[in-house]
């Protein structure tokens, strides 16, 4: 049987034309099993030598070539399953690479920084809550002081002040200290004006008052010799 134009056809060797341009390729199967094994052994030894000298990654021989040679040798020895003895490189999955110590150190440092950031974030949250609580306490304290001052002014000046306008009870989280101070100034302004008017009236009245002092005369007291020993004041 010969392959002609990519088709296998029968041919009588007696009619073979020796002048045809062909090359005869003697199959490995020619000869005895011992001869074939010896031939494949030489091939495997040469493949192993190339891989040892040039390394496993070379342009001439790779692991798959060597596995194929071993498989043929096992087949001649009556073993149909070469994967029992050798692993087919085409099905082999390389193990994951070992982590780089530098990468491991960088990962540990990253986790450490992440933990530090989480701690700092929690600290900022606690500080913010503490600040809000302190601000609320200060506002409450200011509210109480304002109410006491207003009551004192009401008692001192006999005037009523609408404390609802002070805004001390309206959404403390939105009212700043300056806003409360402005509210106090606005509400207390009429009372202050009334106090100023009362003070002016009192001053004007005091300026019109005439102070009269009683007239007194001084009487000298003399002794028997006619010397003044003392002076006595009496109402005139």
What would your notes on this structure say?
β3 and β4 form a beta hairpin. The protein starts with a strand and ends with a strand. The protein has two domains: 27-91; 101-208. Strands 1-2 form a two-stranded antiparallel ribbon. It has a two-stranded antiparallel sheet with strand order 3-4. Helices cover 53% and strands 9% of the residues. α1 (33-54) packs antiparallel against α2 (63-76) and α3 (101-157) packs parallel to α4. The protein is mainly alpha-helical and 236 residues long. It contains four helices and four strands; from the N terminus they run ββααααββ.
Main attributes of the structure:
two-stranded antiparallel ribbon, 236 residues, rod-shaped, two-stranded antiparallel sheet, 53% helix, 4 helices, mainly alpha
Short synopsis of the structure:
Helix content is 53%, strand content 9%. It is mainly alpha-helical.
Percent of residues in beta strands: 5-15%
Q: Reading side by side through the largest sheet, how are the strands ordered?
A: 1-2
| Low-pLDDT ranges | 168-175
Count structural domains: 2
Shape: rod-shaped
- Give the structural class: mainly alpha
> Over all CA atoms, what is the radius of gyration?
61 Å
SSE pattern, N- to C-terminal: EEHHHHEE
Helical content class: 40-55%
The major sheet is characterized as:
2 strands, antiparallel
How far is it from the N-terminal to the C-terminal residue, by CA? 175 Å
Question: How is the topology of this model organized?
Answer:
Layout (H helix, E strand, L loop, with lengths): L1 E3 L2 E3 L23 H22 L8 H14 L24 H57 L19 H32 L7 E7 L5 E8 L1
Antiparallel strand pairs: 1-2, 3-4
């Amino acid at each position: 049987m010969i392959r002609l134009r990519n088709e296998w056809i029968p041919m009588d060797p007696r009619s073979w034309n020796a002048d045809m341009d062909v090359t005869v390729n003697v199959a490995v199967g020619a000869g005895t099993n011992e001869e074939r094994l010896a031939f494949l052994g030489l091939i495997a030894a040469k493949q192993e030598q190339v891989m040892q000298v040039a390394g496993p990654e070379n342009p001439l021989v790779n692991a798959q070539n060597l596995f194929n040679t071993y498989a043929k040798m096992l087949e001649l020895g009556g073993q149909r399953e070469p994967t029992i003895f050798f692993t087919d490189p085409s099905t082999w999955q390389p193990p994951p690479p070992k982590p780089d110590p530098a990468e491991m150190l960088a990962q540990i440092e990253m986790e450490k920084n992440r933990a530090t950031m989480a701690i700092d974030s929690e600290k900022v949250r606690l500080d913010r809550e503490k600040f809000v609580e302190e601000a609320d306490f200060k506002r409450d304290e200011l509210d109480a002081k304002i109410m006491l001052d207003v009551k004192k002014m009401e008692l001192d000046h006999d005037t009523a002040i609408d404390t609802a306008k002070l805004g001390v009870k309206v959404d403390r989280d939105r009212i700043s200290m300056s806003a409360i101070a402005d509210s106090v100034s606005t509400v207390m302004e009429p009372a202050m004006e009334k106090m100023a008017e009362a003070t002016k009236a009192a001053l004007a009245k005091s300026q019109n008052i005439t102070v009269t002092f009683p007239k007194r005369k001084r009487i000298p007291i003399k002794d028997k010799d006619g010397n003044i020993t003392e002076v006595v004041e009496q109402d005139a």
